[in-house]
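2024-03-11 09:14:02 INFO queue: dequeued item Ribosomal RNA small subunit methyltransferase G, len=237
2024-03-11 09:14:02 INFO validating residues
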Amino acid sequence: MFIDEMKQAADSYGLVLSETQLGQFNRYYELLVEWNKIMNLTAITEPQEVAVKHMIDSLTAYDASLFTEGATVIDVGTGAGFPGLPLKIFAPGIKLTLMDSLNKRVRFLQTVVDELGLQDVACVHARAEEGARNKAYREQFDIAVSRAVARLPILAEYCLPFVRRGGHFLALKGMQYQEEEQEAVKAIKVMGGSETQTRPVKLPGLEDVRAVIDITKGMPTPKAYPRKAGTPAKNPL
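2024-03-11 09:14:37 INFO prediction written
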C-alpha cells in the first residue's frame, strides 16, 4: 500500500509525518494515479517509486529556516504539483501558489487541493514568463521552487523574477547540477541573484546524485526580464 511505502520512505529520509499527513499523501497518490489514466501527469505510478521519487524528492527542498509559518511560496511549472504540494502537506503554514502553463493540469491541482482540504493554496494557469510580469506575482514571494522544468540558466530567468529581495529560489536538480550551476552564473547575476549554496541530496534506496541549489535574491530583477514567452528556452542567457 502507498501509505506504508510513504511512511517507510519518510522514516528512511529522517522525516516524521503525522497520521493526517500520511492520509493526505495517500489521497494525493490516489488522485495522481486516477487522473493519470486520462492525462499525462507522470510516468512513475508504482507506490514505492512515487513515494521516493516524487514525494520525498519534493521534500528535499524543505528547510525549516525558510518554510516558516506564513512564508509565501510559488512553485513555477509545477506540473502534477511537485514539489509544491508535498511541501504544503509537510509545512501546512506556508502560503502556496502553484503555477502551470496547462489548464487541465491546473484543474487536477485544484481537485487535489480541494480533496485534501488544503488552505492558502492558489492554482494559477500561466506561463512563467507571463506570470512574472504580473504585478500580483512579481517579486512577491519569499521562496520560489521548481523541479524538472528546464536547465538552470533558463530556470533562473523563469523563477528569480517572482522572488522578493532577500528571498530564495530553490532549484531541485539531478546529476548534472554542478554543470548547470556553472552554466547559470551569468543568468543568476542578471536576474538579481547574489549568493548560491548547493546541498547534495541522497534519496532512500537510490544511488543517483541530486542536489538542491539555493539562490538568494540580492537585487531586484531588471524590468526587461523575463523575456517574452519562449525566448529564455530558445536563447538562454
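2024-03-11 09:14:37 INFO annotate: The first strand starts at residue 72 and ends at 76.
2024-03-11 09:14:38 INFO item closed
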